[in-house]
Write a structure and sequence with these properties.
Strand content of chain B: 25-35%
Oligomer: heterotrimer
Order of helices and strands of chain B: EHEEHEHEHHHEHEHEEHEEEHEH
Number of helices of chain B: 11
Largest sheet of chain B: 6 strands, mixed
Number of domains of chain B: 2
Number of strands of chain B: 13
Helix content of chain A: over 70%
Shape of chain B: globular
Order of helices and strands of chain A: HHEEHHHHHHHHH
Shape of chain A: globular
Strand content of chain A: under 5%
CATH topology of the largest domain in chain B: Rossmann fold
Structural class of chain B: alpha/beta
Radius of gyration of chain B: 25 Å
Largest sheet of chain A: 2 strands, antiparallel
Chains: A mainly alpha (262), B alpha/beta (333), C mainly alpha (266)
Number of helices of chain A: 11
Number of domains of chain A: 1
Chain lengths: 262, 333, 266
């Protein structure tokens, strides 16, 4: 059943072709801007802190089209609005678990976005600027694991924020707050190794770091085998914690809606 | 009576970009320059005098809204001419706007989150209404429609009926010469509908405001507008007195005779027997030239007649008959 | 005209009143947006701790560029973005007709009935950052350069407002304008950075067909004495003129778009 939801989401998206072209453009422009930034700062140096330009270009390519392909904003607003308006009550009547239903749907959306926006932009920009392969087979394989984990954690964070909108009565502000946090701390734009050491050490342990920084660091081989496995474990821990939080918040919200009518 | 609105052979055609279905069709749509033309109004002519109350009636897609849009300056006719208060509405949009009031049944002009009074104040400024005139109008109109209790309440807290009453009052605050209403009673409950109808009739009679009203609800026209313009499939099919419509189409009046003792099977020449319930018998008078008196004369006084009920047909039936007659003519011809 | 003076301030008052009905959400919103943009700038600041300059611009100079761009955008967008983005829906639902039956300019009504005070967060951040950077940056400020900054800022705001209005007005012609906005914001993001880090083709584009270059890089580069691609010294003169010129274009476009709405279209 949930597979059907994922497939349906994929097909629905395909119907909005104007949006497709527009988001292709948006995604391309964004990654392009950051590659231009890296190329500019690396003009006079070959390597900074052991990081080279080709590595940073690859960093921007993965951080952009690949890891930010999925639109967390849509989910946040979807959950936020349906919960505040009480529309979500419809789902309480159906024989399914709402969070699971959302996850299945968003998986469908993820594949759609990767296929239609992420991969095309990645391929085109990579052809122009060059992209490095994974540092090793081990790193390559584990990157895939981290990639999946990145999506799961991003999904959970977005869902959590959407549910918080129920009590704060606004999804709009949460969206902007999360956007700021992701911009600075997720490592999708600025790698954590350019932060001051003390600060970086803390950020590396926050769940947002698994959205961008850790997957890319693994891909580029910046982490040793042991480190990689440790971070994988920690990431899974965070995922479980966030899942529990989402589940708990959802139950409380559902209870409020059924008892008080939203 | 001076002509205040005139339509001369007005037509309005819309060009619609042809759309093709499916994904391949979507790409084809981007590259094709094919258009299909939709005629919303075709060759419509009429003249309305100052002080009249006219009902504009027709099924969905007949061209009612399009006509109102041309009269209020929103749309430009494809051909023909429209003249309102001696001007071409779309060419002198602002000047025209000052002298008309428009109420859209399904599109509100009130500010959702603010008290009704605030929207009225904005209206006063936009139309440049003098303070004394404004207060006088506001008091008079809101009294008539009983707005007092909720003038200071936010629009979002009002019921549909209350909101519509406020919209209509607002449209009259600047003493417009003509009031256009596009489906004003849609969605209202019976009480609210009645209040609106009585109010509009009164405004028309007391202030001489010309009223143009589009509607699906035939009761609106029956109560407010002595004159009816009927459109269907972009053309004008009837323009005249409501009573004439009944006369033109022939009126099928219903007669119920109640007897003290069962007279048995009673068929008459002057009326058609539709139902026989023993003591009560129902008849239909189809011919316009036959009156109740004729039927009773035929009946004579040999029967124990206890009671008579006589009904004029209502407007729904009249119009339905009109369409049926027309469809029958089309099928035959 | 007389009408406008009586109506416009009242329109703005009504809108502000309706926004402040939801005071909590409003304050939260402007704070969240302040935070988000601050994070974006902080990211570049961190970058510059490691790399010192971006395209030859140091942090104070970049701060001036960022704050100028954001301030100009906020002022222009307050008068245009939400109002004309939502025009698409007004047209679709037919609500726009209610504006055409009033003896008032539909454009003015739209723009001022939604004069978006929600940009207060953006403006606070941009103004603060600009004050700091103006003092830090290596410019010998004079009355002339201060006036130039002001003129260029107003012109830049007009550039933003004109472009946003024109995109919104396309709703009268194509019915859908949201995709064009996505494209606009793509370029807008690029205009945040010094144009010289981009390929020549894009630099040229940002000074011609997508005049957003005039809303940030060109005037600030002129003040800082940096090279301006394509225009070089003419750039300094062009920046304060670009806004008013685009406004004229936007006005003509608006007239045309409304005539399309009234003439054809469903």
């Amino acid at each position: 059943m949930y597979l059907a939801f994922a497939s349906s989401a994929f097909q629905t998206q395909l119907a909005y072709r104007g949006q497709v072209w527009a988001s292709l453009f948006g995604s391309a422009v964004h990654v392009f801007a950051w590659i231009a930034i890296w190329m500019s700062v690396y003009q006079d140096t070959a390597s900074v802190d052991g990081v080279t330009l080709p590595q940073m270009v690859t960093y921007a390519l993965i951080g952009g089209p690949v890891l930010t392909a999925w639109q967390w904003r849509r989910l946040l607003n979807l959950v936020g609005n349906s919960v505040t308006s009480g529309d979500v009550a419809i789902y309480l009547l159906k024989p399914l678990r709402y969070p699971l239903y959302l996850f299945a749907t968003e998986c469908g959306n993820l594949f759609y976005r990767l296929a239609v926006t992420g991969l095309p932009v990645l391929v085109i920009v990579a052809l122009v600027y060059g992209m490095l392969p994974p540092a090793s087979l081990f790193h390559g394989l584990l990157f895939i694991a981290f990639w999946a984990l990145s999506f799961v954690i991003m999904f959970l964070i977005a869902a959590l924020c959407g549910l918080l909108a129920f009590w704060l009565l606004t999804a709009f502000s949460l969206e902007w707050l999360l956007q700021g946090i992701l911009m600075l701390l997720s490592g999708t734009h600025i790698p954590l190794w350019f932060f001051p050491d003390a600060v970086a050490a803390i950020i590396k342990l926050l769940p947002v770091a698994w959205v961008g920084y850790h997957p890319i660091a693994v891909y580029l081989g910046k982490t040793s085998v042991t480190e990689t496995l440790i971070y994988l474990g920690l990431g899974l821990g965070w995922a479980l914690l966030l899942a529990a939080a989402v589940s708990a918040l959802w139950r409380r919200a559902a209870l409020r809606i059924t008892v008080q009518g939203g | 009576m001076s002509t205040i609105i005139e339509a001369r052979a007005v037509s309005k055609r819309f060009r619609q970009h042809r759309r093709f279905p499916g994904l391949r069709g979507a790409i084809r749509t981007l590259f094709t320059a094919e258009y299909s033309e939709v005629a919303a109004v075709t060759d419509v002519s009429y003249a309305i005098s100052q002080g009249e109350a006219v009902g504009y009636l027709g099924p969905n897609g007949a061209g009612k809204s399009t006509m109102i849009k041309m009269l209020t300056g929103i749309l430009v006719p494809t051909s023909g001419a429209v003249s309102v208060l001696g001007r071409t509405p779309h060419r002198e949009r602002m000047t025209n706007a000052r002298e008309i009031g428009v109420v859209f049944g399904q599109r509100s002009q009130l500010w959702w989150d603010l008290p009704v009074r605030d929207s009225f104040e904005l209206h006063r400024r936009i139309y440049g209404i003098a303070d004394a005139r404004f207060t006088a109008n506001l008091d008079y109109l809101s009294d008539l429609l009983d707005l007092g209790p909720f003038l200071d309440r936010a629009v979002r807290q009002l019921s549909l009926g209350q909101r519509m009453r406020a919209e209509i009052v607002m449209a009259l605050l600047h003493d417009p010469k003509i009031l256009f209403l596009d489906e004003p009673t849609i969605g209202l409950d019976v009480v609210a509908k009645d209040a609106v109808r009585r109010f509009l009739t009164r405004v028309n009679r007391e202030r001489g405001t010309t009223i143009i009203l589009t509607t699906h609800d035939l009761q609106d026209i029956e109560q407010i507008c002595p004159r009816l313009i009927m459109v269907d499939q972009s053309r004008l099919i009837f323009d005249g007195d409501l009573r004439n419509l009944r006369a033109t189409l022939g009126s099928r009046r219903r007669l119920t005779l109640e007897f003290g003792a069962d007279p048995g099977s009673l068929t008459l020449r002057t009326a058609l027997l539709t139902a026989d319930e023993g003591l009560r018998k129902h008849y239909l008078l189809e011919r316009e030239d036959i009156s109740l008196v004729d039927v009773l004369t035929e009946l004579g006084n040999g029967y124990d007649l206890k009671d008579i009920a006589f009904e004029e047909p209502n407007i729904e039936e009249v119009i339905r008959t009109f369409y049926q007659g027309r469809d029958a003519a089309r099928a035959a011809g | 005209m007389r009408n406008a003076i009586r109506v416009i301030p009242f329109l703005v008052r009504l809108y502000v009143k309706s926004r402040l009905e939801y005071r909590g959400a409003f304050l939260l919103a402007i704070s969240a947006q302040f935070f988000s943009y601050a994070c974006g700038y902080a990211a570049i600041w961190i970058l510059l701790q490691k790399f010192e300059t971006l395209g030859g611009w140091d942090w104070p100079e970049l701060a001036l560029l960022f704050s100028f761009q954001l301030l100009a955008y906020s002022m222009g967008a307050a008068l245009s973005f939400v109002q004309f983005r939502d025009l698409e829906e007004l047209v679709r639902l037919g609500t726009f007709d209610t504006l055409l039956v009033k003896p008032f300019s539909p454009w003015a009504y739209l723009a001022f009935s939604g004069l978006n005070i929600g940009y207060a967060g953006h403006i606070a951040l941009a103004a603060g950052l600009m004050v700091w950077s103006v003092l830090q940056v290596g410019i010998d400020w004079s009355l002339g350069s201060a006036l130039y900054l002001l003129a260029a800022l107003i012109s830049a705001a007009l550039v933003n407002a004109a472009l946003i209005t024109m995109i919104g007005a396309s709703a009268f012609i194509f019915v859908q304008s949201s995709h064009l906005y996505t494209i606009f914001f793509g370029f807008w993001e690029l205009s945040r950075y010094p144009l010289n880090i981009f390929p020549a083709g894009l630099q040229w584009l940002m000074i011609t067909f997508v005049p957003l270059g005039f809303a940030s890089f060109v005037p600030v580069a002129h003040l800082l004495g940096k090279d301006i691609p394509v225009l070089s010294d003419l750039g300094g003169l062009a920046a304060p003129l670009a806004g008013p010129l685009l406004v004229l274009v936007a006005m003509a476009h608006w007239k045309y778009a409304i005539s399309r709405y009234q003439g054809g279209g469903g």
